[in-house]
Design a protein that fits this description.
The complex is a heterotrimer of chains A (about 100), B (about 120) and C (about 140).
Chain A: H1 2-19, H2 37-50, H3 55-63, H4 65-86, H5 91-101
Chain B: H1 4-9, H2 11-29, H3 33-54, H4 77-108, H5 113-120
Chain C: H1 4-26, H2 35-53, H3 55-61, H4 64-87, H5 113-137
Helix pairs in contact in C: 1-2, 2-3, 2-5, 4-5
Classes of the chains: A mainly alpha (about 100), B mainly alpha (about 120), C mainly alpha (about 140).
Chain lengths: ~100, ~120, ~140
């Protein structure tokens, strides 16, 4: 019962998503709105600004280096979170001690 | 009448939407916590595919500039650079979720959600 | 797991995987790839070693003390590179106008800050992947 309801709702969601495809700009066209002056600037000025042929490397470590700094902070935070969750005493031993105290 | 040319032209969008719905189905219907994390990962992958497809151009080269040939068209480098950030965040979220699942398995001895609800005495269908 | 073929093959191909990872990191500003792809390859080599030889041997190969220092050192080195821009009178994380040597386009030592930052991030990603993997499986170790 529950599963068939979920399939029905998600099928409707898929229909809605697919019906939006004809309204979107055609894929792979160079005149799409995503090819605006920002990407043109990156491609034409990357060598003059950063002396690097790989445009993506110049974006992630020069133009948007703050973004990469935040990204390394996210990695650092995730490793801190994993260590703080996994270290410490095992939960079952803590529960047993509380049971024996009562 | 099915317009096959349109389907072939937009195959990336169709694939991304289908992957998103498959991931959402996995998250909603499975009670195994590991399978739910896998579903979230499938949804993230669909978003990455959609975002990178936006920057794609037909017949264009990867955005590594060739100094000898000026007339090449390149794909849009901005979505690719932003998706790199997204992939790292996805890895971090997956690691954190897996560590919490390890703790839940220590405490309850199972990672099935309906069994955990049963142990806690919560009504859940 | 104690399999002679897996152990021998792992010992044989591990230097080549690490060499490829270092190549991808160092050529991050010239070719496809970069800090994250190269760091993932480097981390995968240590994960392969741990899978073949067990968690105890893997700990000896990549101890927590060293990986945690590489991790903190990578992010501090990246922030220090950004502070060079402020010291030279510009903005945080400024590249060529902050005085980094530009070099010749297309050679290994070019691009100023970009190869240094790629190296720092690559080392950090590699040690992060190794530490996450060891942390999540070492729960089994003390059981």
């Amino acid at each position: 019962m529950k599963k068939s309801f979920v399939v029905f709702v998600l099928g409707g969601l898929l229909m809605v998503l697919l019906s939006s495809i004809p309204e979107m700009p055609p894929m792979g066209n160079v005149n799409n709105p995503s090819f605006n002056q920002v990407s043109e600037y990156y491609i034409s000025q990357a060598i003059a600004d950063t002396n690097t042929p790989n445009v993506i490397a110049s974006i992630i470590t020069d133009y948007r280096a703050f973004d990469t700094l935040g990204e390394t902070t996210v990695l650092f935070t995730s490793i801190t979170a994993v260590i703080s969750v996994l270290s410490g005493k095992k939960m079952t031993s803590i529960m047993k001690r509380e049971d024996s105290n009562e | 009448m099915i317009n096959w040319n349109m389907i072939l032209d937009n195959i990336n969008y169709i694939g991304a939407f289908t992957l998103f719905v498959i991931g959402l189905y996995t998250v909603l219907t499975h009670s195994n916590l590991l399978k739910r994390v896998i579903g979230v990962n499938i949804m993230e992958t669909s978003i990455f595919l959609f975002f990178v497809s936006i920057g794609y151009a037909k017949g264009a080269a990867a955005p590594i500039i060739d100094m000898a040939n000026e007339s090449i068209t390149y794909v849009n480098p901005l979505p690719s650079a932003m998706i790199l950030t997204g992939i790292v965040v996805a890895v971090s979220i997956t690691a954190y979720a897996l560590s919490i699942i390890i703790r839940i398995h220590e405490l309850y001895g199972t990672i099935e959600m309906d069994e955990i609800f049963q142990m806690d005495g919560i009504e859940h269908d | 797991m104690n399999d002679l073929i897996v152990k021998t093959v792992t010992k044989l191909i591990m230097p080549f995987i690490q060499l490829y990872g270092i190549y991808v990191i160092l050529h991050g500003h010239l070719s496809p790839g970069g800090a994250f792809a190269g760091g993932a390859i480097m981390g995968a080599s240590y994960i392969l070693y741990t899978l073949a030889f067990g968690i105890h041997e893997g700990h000896k190969k990549a101890p927590h003390e060293i990986t945690s220092k590489i991790e903190s050192g990578g992010i501090l080195f990246f922030i220090g590179l950004g502070l060079v821009g402020i010291v030279s009178g510009g903005f945080f994380l400024e590249n060529l106008s902050a005085g980094f040597p530009p070099g010749v386009v297309g050679t290994l030592l070019s691009g100023g800050l970009i190869p240094l930052a790629t190296f720092a991030i690559g080392m950090k990603v590699a040690s992060t992947i190794v530490t996450l993997f060891h942390r999540t499986i070492e729960e089994e170790m003390y059981d």
